[in-house]
Write a structure and sequence with these properties.
about 80 residues, mainly beta, three-stranded antiparallel β-sheet
Length: about 80
């Protein structure tokens, strides 16, 4: 991931105490790759994608010597009845 940028508006409602408020937002990217679109229950937002140099970098954790991560397979579908 190269980084991220902030979006200054919301496409959905922001009154989270209202049960009719939905936080589902559809997103799309323009065919030329220069704009993002966010469609919520309140508005459609078009956001220009900034240049790579304008992105906020993401901090990475440093590796700890001797510390090894191991994948843990969950097998979520193995015990389900068909």
């Amino acid at each position: 991931m190269l980084g991220y940028f902030e979006v200054a508006d919301y496409a959905h409602c922001t009154n989270y105490n209202d049960y009719s408020c939905t936080l589902v937002v559809q997103t799309a990217i323009s065919p030329d790759g220069n704009n993002l679109f966010f469609a919520g229950n309140e508005k459609l937002i078009e956001v220009p994608i900034p240049a790579e140099s304008a992105l906020t970098t993401i901090m990475k954790a440093q590796r700890t010597p001797g510390f090894v991560t191991t994948p843990w397979p969950l097998n979520l579908g193995a015990n389900r009845a068909n």
